Amino acid sequence: MELNVDNDNIIVEIEFDYPTIEGMIYQGTKIKVSESDFNTKQYSEKIRGKSEVGKIIWVPRKLLKKVGE
Predict the structure, then answer these.
(1) How far apart are the first and last CA of the chain?
(2) Are strands 30-34 and 46-50 parallel, antiparallel or unpaired?
(3) Per residue in 4-16, pLDDT tens?
(4) Which of 28, 37, 46, 66 could form a disulfide with 58 if both were Cys (CB 3.0 to 4.6 A apart)?
(5) What stretch of H or E contains 59?
(6) How does pLDDT run across 22-37, given as a tens digit for each residue?
(7) Non-local CB neighbours of 56 within 8 Å, separated by 6+ positions
(8) Is 5:32 a contact under the CB 8 Å cutoff?
(9) Is residue 23 within 8 Å of 34, Cβ to Cβ?
(10) Superfamily assignment of 9-66 in CATH?
(11) Are 49 and 31 in contact (CB under 8 A)?
(12) Is the CB of residue 41 less than 8 Å from the CB of residue 47?
C-alpha cells in the first residue's frame, strides 16, 4: 500500500544532478518524500517525492540527503 507523501513527509536535498524524462533535477533541489520510504529504501531503489511546485519525481535513494529544519 502506497502512503500519501503529505502524511509523514520530510524535506530532502538532491546531492547530484539527475536526468529524468521530464528534464534535469539539479543539485541542491529540495523535495518532500515519505519518511518511511526514506528510511526503508536501499541504495538504488527509487523514492517518490514532490518538488516545491507539486511535480512528482522518482529519485534513487543514493542521491538524497536529509535536510535539518
Answers:
(1) 28
(2) antiparallel
(3) 545 688 999 999 9
(4) 46
(5) strand 56-60
(6) 889 999 999 999 999 9
(7) 48, 49, 50
(8) yes
(9) no
(10) SH3 Domains (2.30.30.40)
(11) yes
(12) yes
Q: Which residue has the cell 518511511?
A: 36
Compute the CA torsion angle 22, 48, 13, 17 (nearest 10 deg): -30
Return d(Cα 55, Cα 10) in angstroms, integer.
16
Q: What is the DSSP string of 24-38?
A: EE-TT-EEEEEHHHH
Distance of alpha carbon 36 from alpha carbon 9, whole angstroms: 9
Nearest alpha carbon to residue 33 among 16, 18, 13: 13
Could you tell me the three cell numbers for 16?
A: 547530484
Amino acid in position 39 = N
Going by the DSSP 8-state scheme, the letter that residue 40 receives in this structure is: H
- Model pTM? 0.77
